[in-house]
Design brief:
Number of helices: 9
Number of strands: 15
Distance between the termini: 43 Å
Radius of gyration: 22 Å
Bound molecules: iron/sulfur cluster
Low-confidence stretches: 1-28, 79-87, 89-111, 334-360
Order of helices and strands: HHEHEEEEEEHEEHEEHEHEEEHH
Strand order of the largest sheet: 12-1-15
Strand content: 15-25%
């Protein structure tokens, strides 16, 4: 069967009508306020030692095998630059629970994905300048930083998704994805101001992947694995309001002051006494893109770390779908994409549901 230009344009227009009808009313459905029990993560880069225990445990607890930090049978545990500990505290100095890329010993800890991927939902990256000697210094220094979904208060990815595959939990605010709804258009990728969602290009049944705040663990009374297994308190989990207060407090403290940094969660009894570093710039996430539930502190400015200097300080969903919907090729894309993937959508739906059932 061939499709004439006239039929094609009719199809595009028709799909536009259908899609326009399916577009959620952003203002009506998407709040710009924090949900009542919003939870999130505070990542303080000045406490980060680059051990990647967060990345390893992210993989383990989110069923994303593959990639440089994975090997069969790996177990949960805490790693730092010198040793790895099982949850029971057993030390394994030369046997980290992840792929060492053929390098024996702890050097292998540095062999990891270069960026977020369909198999890497969070990543620790390194900033370097000059000699790289001074930790958290923009000049002749180095600094770690963590990239993952920031769980926007008003998520652009959800606002632009024509299939309603991206959602924001109305109670805890986690932004999550339902694979069985996804039509593969990947507008979420275009819309995200932080370049987070990734597509599983190498999968026969591709899905969009990103951090979901480990929301599947909440029902068991657990929280984000990256926070639970961070040995230094660089990544901690808690109520967003409390994390914001904590971040502002750290930011305003005099460098050199001794402070008991909480580990794992804000109300954890585990703490680590150390001197406050000099924080650069600002608390990231208080207002960027309208505010995010994951927030960050760093000794090196976020622009130097590669974060977009021009990110708007207001919610983006007001702009996104209204903007995208006016671009003709978007509807053409929806039509072409829709017809191409129509044959696999129903199978994806089944696959997605199967996966979710397995997850439950
Ligand atoms: S960071 Fe990107 S993927 Fe995450 S909630 Fe915000 S817009 Fe969505
Ligand atoms: S909260 Fe996100 S980054 Fe952290 S372990 Fe869970 S999925 Fe990974
Ligand atoms: S955030 Fe914590 S677990 Fe992750 S690399 Fe830094 S110190 Fe290690």
């Amino acid at each position: 069967m061939t499709i004439s230009r006239r039929d094609f344009l009719k199809g595009v227009a028709g799909s536009g009508v259908v899609m326009a009808a399916a577009v959620p009313d952003v203002d009506a459905k998407m709040s710009k306020e924090l949900p009542p029990k919003a939870v999130g993560i505070l990542y303080d880069a000045t406490l980060c030692i680059g051990c990647k225990s967060c990345m390893v445990n992210c993989k383990i607890h989110n069923s994303v095998p593959g990639g440089a930090l994975h090997k069969e049978g790996m177990v949960s545990g805490v790693c730092d630059a010198l040793l790895c500990r099982s949850p029971e505290g057993e030390e394994k100095a030369t046997d980290p629970p992840y792929e060492t890329g053929g390098i024996k010993g702890n050097e292998g800890i540095w062999d990891a994905s270069q960026d977020l991927t369909g198999k890497t939902l969070s990543i620790i990256k390194v900033y370097r300048n000059g000699t790289g000697e001074q930790k958290d210094s923009p000049v002749n220094g180095h600094a770690f930083f963590k990239q993952q979904c920031l769980h926007c208060i008003t998520p652009a990815c959800a606002s632009v998704c024509p299939a309603g595959a991206f959602k924001k939990d109305p109670v805890n605010g986690a932004v999550y994805y339902e694979a069985y709804r996804c039509i593969g258009c990947r507008y979420c990728q275009i819309a995200c101001p932080f370049n987070v969602p990734r597509y599983e290009w190498d999968s026969a049944w591709p899905e969009v992947r990103k951090c979901q705040l480990c929301r599947h663990r909440f029902a068991e009374g657990k929280y984000s694995a990256c926070a639970e297994f961070c040995p230094t308190g660089a990544t901690i989990f808690g109520r967003v309001e409390d994390l914001r207060q904590e971040a502002k407090k750290r930011f305003s403290m005099k460098p050199g002051t001794e402070y008991e940094y909480p580990i794992k969660t804000l109300d954890s009894r585990e703490t680590s006494l150390r001197k406050v570093s000099r924080y650069a710039d600002r608390v990231y996430g208080l207002s960027e893109a309208g505010g995010t539930q994951n927030i960050m502190l760093s000794g090196v400015s976020f622009e130097l770390l590669g974060f977009d200097r021009d990110i708007p300080h207001s919610a983006l969903p007001d702009l996104t779908w209204a903007y995208v919907a006016k671009i003709p090729w978007v509807f053409a894309g929806v039509f072409l994409g829709g017809t191409t993937i129509h044959a696999i959508t129903s199978r994806m739906a089944k696959h997605g549901k199967d996966k979710e059932e397995k997850h439950d």
